[in-house]
Design brief:
binds fe (ii) ion; 46% helix; single chain; Ferritin-like_SF; two-stranded antiparallel sheet; oxidoreductase activity; mainly alpha; 475 residues; Aromatic_CoA_ox/epox; Ribonucleotide Reductase, subunit A; Benzoyl-CoA oxygenase component B; Benzoyl_CoA_Oase_BoxB
């Protein structure tokens, strides 16, 4: 069995999946490796390839000390393939019609297409975000932040490896073709875009970067957590390990926004007219519109609120709910409904949807609860600074491109409005391209160790016990 904690770190591709004993697979992946590196050089972070970055590299799958920290040039990063260990006897299908039965260690024929689609969709997000963020090193507010950006980037690269391993090992020729395609699509490209909408949106500046890692990487957390409950054992164990890395990405986003809020609060009080922009900071209105923008694009990633696919994936045991095994008792969910407001004849009417069909909404609700936790922390900062402004999450009906609310018009409070009303207010509610000019004007790089740009507060502590003034990137 491959439920191993022993890692082959000296192999060309570090792994704990026994690549040394699987010549055919190893050769296929070693053939994909130079293509991956070519993609990284073309589409990864620009211009910092020769600079040593204080990066963490996964070297173990045990809970204690799974990572090693050192200065590494990004192209030399050791991207590896790691699956969480799991006792095969305890690996079961955790949800749906066959809940409780033994998990699959090979792809069952009847679920082959669905599983491939699930894996490819997840895989596609990983390189996409690296592409979206490739220019941000040039405007980093500090070496600490630059290091965090690059850490996120190399780990998204590793997540791509994690998914490509599954495609190569379990899906034959089709899988290899899909793995090649993952290096051919490009975020925002008209002809060959990335699969999901949020991953084609520009991430032009650090306000968007922090909102992206806060809201879009957080969608990733919930998708990975749902797949960690999959009956397909290698997928479950692979995504489980990805979650270990993902926690830091969410930390970067949540604390990044919190540090902006902290700094904006200080500037708000300093300026005689409470004009944060006049003081060179990011005003709360712009922060709120950025939250509105990235939160709603991230909600789209959960798919339609009413979904046959979601019902099929759950019923087949391919994708569970958040903490399916720990949190729920009934894993079949044959009965039960989910109430959601739907647009009917020009107004909102509550409808009861069979629970299995509402699984995307169930997962999304867990996500919203998680986001609300961060909002509470941010508002605590404002409270402490004795500023009356509060930040909020918009209604999940607002600004949607997927699901039952797409094609209708809502204000951020979730009330149905006309298209004309929406268009007249859009710029007041959402981050718009016109904001970029101002944001880019204040986002001048700040590369001196221990120094931070004027628009963001320093972090409360450094990385891995290192001080703030540590040289996180050696320029
Ligand atoms: Fe990822
Ligand atoms: Fe991530």
């Amino acid at each position: 069995m491959t439920a191993s904690t022993s890692i082959d770190l000296n192999a060309k591709i570090p792994n704990n999946v026994g690549l040394a004993h699987d010549t055919k697979l190893r050769r296929a992946l070693e053939k994909w490796l130079p293509n991956y590196l070519e993609w990284w050089n073309d589409m990864g972070p620009t211009d910092f390839a020769d600079k040593p970055v204080y990066l963490r590299t996964a070297i173990s799958v045990s809970n204690e000390g799974w990572a090693h920290y050192d200065h590494v040039k990004m192209p030399d990063y050791r991207w590896g393939i790691f699956l969480n260990p799991r006792n095969p006897d305890e690996s079961t299908i955790r949800c749906g019609d066959d809940a409780g039965r033994k998990a699959w260690f090979e792809v069952p024929g009847e679920h082959r297409n669905a599983l491939r689609r699930i894996i490819v969709t997840q895989a596609d997000t990983e390189p996409a975000s690296v592409e979206q963020q490739r220019l941000l090193g040039h405007t980093a507010p500090s070496l600490y932040d630059m290091r965090n950006l690059f850490q996120v980037n190399v780990e998204e690269g590793r997540h791509l490896w994690a998914m490509v391993y599954l495609l190569h090992k379990y899906f034959g020729r089709d899988g290899r073709d899909e793995a090649d395609e993952l290096l051919n699509r490009r975020s925002g490209d008209e002809d060959k875009p990335r699969i999901l909408g949020a991953f084609n949106q520009p991430c032009d500046h650090w306000l968007s970067f922090f909102a992206f890692t806060m809201f879009t990487d957080r969608d990733g957390k919930f998708q990975l957590a749902a797949l960690a409950e999959s009956g397909f054992d290698p997928l479950a164990r692979s995504t489980e390990f990805m979650l270990t890395e993902e926690a830091h990405h969410l930390f970067v986003g949540q604390t990044g926004l919190q540090r902006i809020i902290q700094r904006s609060a200080e500037l708000y009080k300093q300026d005689p007219n409470n004009d944060v922009r006049n003081a060179g900071g990011i005003d709360f209105d712009l922060i709120q519109r950025t939250i509105n923008y990235w939160f709603t694009y991230s909600l789209d990633l959960f798919g339609g609120e009413v979904s046959n696919n979601a019902a099929d994936f759950f019923g087949a045991g391919l994708k569970g709910r958040f903490r399916e095994r720990k949190k729920y008792e009934d894993h079949k969910v044959i009965a039960g409904t989910y109430r959601m407001p739907m647009v009917e004849g020009g107004s909102l009417v509550d409808k009861d949807i069979p629970m299995r069909n509402a699984m995307n909404a169930v997962l999304r609700d867990e996500y919203i609860t998680d986001c609300e936790r961060a909002l509470r922390k941010w508002n605590k900062v404002l409270e402490k600074e004795e500023i009356d402004i509060r930040l909020t999450l918009p209604s999940p009906r607002f600004h949607r491109h997927q699901g039952i609310y797409a094609g209708h018009f809502f204000n951020p409070a979730g009330e149905l409005i006309t298209e004309a009303e929406y268009n007249a207010n859009r710029d007041k509610w959402l981050l718009v391209p016109a904001d970029n000019e101002y944001l880019l004007s204040i986002m001048k790089p700040c590369y001196e160790p221990g120094k931070f740009a004027n628009w963001i507060a320093p972090p409360t502590r450094g990385i891995e016990g290192r001080p703030q003034e540590f040289e996180y990137v050696r320029l």
